[in-house]
Amino acid sequence: MSKAIQVAIDGPASSGKSTIAKKIAKKLAYVYLDTGAMYRAITLLALDGHIPAEDADALKALAEASEITFEPGENGQRVLVNGQDQSEAIRTDRISKEVSAYSAVSEVRQVLVEKQRAYTQNGQGVVMDGRDIGTVVLPDAEVKIFLTASAEERGRRRFLENQAKGYSEMNLEDLIEDIKRRDLYDSTREDSPLVPADDAVMLDSSDLTLEEVEDSILAEIHRVIA
Description:
Blueprint: E1 6-10, H1 17-28, E2 31-34, H2 35-48, H3 56-65, E3 68-71, E4 78-81, E5 84-85, H4 93-103, H5 106-118, E6 126-130, H6 133-137, E7 143-148, H7 151-165, H8 172-188, E8 201-204, H9 210-225
Parallel strand pairs: 1-6, 1-7, 2-6, 7-8
Antiparallel strand pairs: 3-4, 4-5
């Protein structure tokens, strides 16, 4: 590949951002950063520490003091929170129900955005996924993708994923309603709402396979670096 670039993949809950971002990063030998995992980690710590989403000062201190790192693992990536593997714990429905409220706290976002930007300072190619990568974290990214799908399709995917992992906290109908609730919360929050960047490529994956999504994004990357 002729030059290393920044790739921003944004989208709503359960749109497949992390899955596809990992595949793209592996294909290009780029650094991959799952920013959503960082917000989930803070949510986990806050819930375990009985810190409400309304306590912005305590949450800011928590985010500043927390060490969130990523390591290769059997399923692609392990998420270490203060040295403990919390890869599974941050993906439960308990966290999914609360993460939108905690990630909407401006003080938390400011701390984590700085930590996220630090990953790009060595000049390596990077693939980052989240909800505000192309608009806030990496506004100058050479490739910006906004990946979405219908709430029903995203709920179905999450349901199947939960079944495969042995989670049974929510049925399909409840998952779809939770996704719609998170969509509304994420798109209407004051700080860094979920909106496509003006120069983002819109990609609806409702009727696409994972391979078709990957091919579409790789084609855009190769177009940019050609």
